[in-house]
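README: folding subset

This subset contains proteins for which both the sequence and a predicted structure token string are available. Records are stored as plain text. Below is the entry for Enzyme related to lactoylglutathione lyase (131 residues), shown exactly as it appears on disk.
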Amino acid sequence: MTEPVLRKVDAVTVPVPDLDSGLAFYRERLGHALVWRNDAVGQAGLRLPDSDTELVLTTEQTYAPNWLVGSVDEAAEAVRVAGGRIVSGPSDIPVGRVVVAADPFGNLLVLVDLSKGLYVTDEAGAVTGIA
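--- output ---
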């Protein structure tokens, strides 16, 4: 293998009971700026000021780092060949693809590619499309 599979931490997902209460805590009380909000998938992305990694509030997923990869399908195969296993996926998400894999030690690896682009938002942060 010539390139490492894991490129960077794309996001850290934090489960919340609903987006409004999550935003009340993380945005209004802790001061993190809203980057985007997608009610259709139960997620909102918040800015971490010293990084391009996002804090993603979620009503569906568990607490986990999301690793950016070049291609989810290739990364899943690399993890499998290296001795890991696929837990779920690969599957499509609005901005690309995702797979949950596990290393040989049982650690979950949420692998994400942004092959469809990034969210486009209006002035309030509501997702209006993908570019």
